[in-house]
Here is the input.
Amino acid sequence: MTALIDIDQLRTFIAISETGSFTRAAEMVNKTQSAVSMQMKRLEERIERPIFVRDGRASKLTEDGMRLLDYARRIVKLNMETIAAFSAKELFGRVRLGVPDDYADRYLPEIMARFSRAYPGVELSVICEPSVDLLERIDSSELDLAIVTNCEARRVAETFRRERLLWVTSNRHATHTEDPLPLALGRPSCAWRRTAIDEMEKINKPHRILYTSSNAGAVAAAVLAGLAVSVLAESGLRPGMRVLTAADGFPELPSCRIGLVRNPRESSPLADALAEHIISSLDNLSDASQAAE
Here is the structure.
């Protein structure tokens, strides 16, 4: 009989493909680096193909590794869905989720609705704060899970979604033509703020920070009122906004990575179930072409 592939090995494989590092992947899956290396050795032996190649300090996927990644994501996702389907009636209690308010309006209703239908006996507690604050709450065990953006430098996150980062202005005003350019951005710790300022400096475009807020709604209000230009993820676009492109004199921005951070000290079936619902609701990295980016 043909031996089956170990799902735990596939989870570790996915973690390495997302982080580009055996060391950082070991942190994500709560294993030692030697254990991770052994798992990957056995996985390569099982499929009889090399799946990683060294590129300096990073580990990149081979062509066969890319093929395997697509299958691995689907297998792990189906496994989680299966477990959730048969354990839903047994779960009770409370699970704590942190979400940046950038994504609360767009994604939270679907997450809450699906999770509530599957686990009616579970209380879902939600906190909306910037990613950096949510990571601090994870560290202090105030949260079980947190959805974060571009925080790889501070914590390994399970990336499950990638979106375009866009320059936005009001479609009823010509704010983007003002000199210096007024900007509405997040706090100094915000990665998108740093990206916006760096891009303005690269093209020597005069600019000034007119509004600063950690609240996405406040930043959007400044944009819609025609007071400032801002940088938002694609999902943060609102009616009345216009995307600025190279034709308007604005450089293309890097993509934004959205990931999930788990509390390693507070792992529970409830947290695992919620994580599965979040990933299945928001995942846009399921196909191989996107995973290869």
Summary: Residues 126 and 230 are 26 Å apart (CA to CA). DSSP finds ten helices and twelve strands in the chain. The two ends are 36 Å apart (CA to CA). The domain at 91-159+257-291 is CATH 3.40.190.10 (D-Maltodextrin-Binding Protein; domain 2).
